[in-house]
Amino acid sequence: MNNAIKEKERKEMGEEKTEKQYPVKSLHDFLFELDREWSKFRNGTLIGLISSGFLFIVVLWLILIIRRLDLGFAAFLFLIAAGVFLGYSIYAMYSQYRFFNKWERRIGLLLHLEEEILAGKLDEPPS
Question: Could you give the 3-state DSSP secondary structure of residue 127?
Answer without folding.
Answer: coil
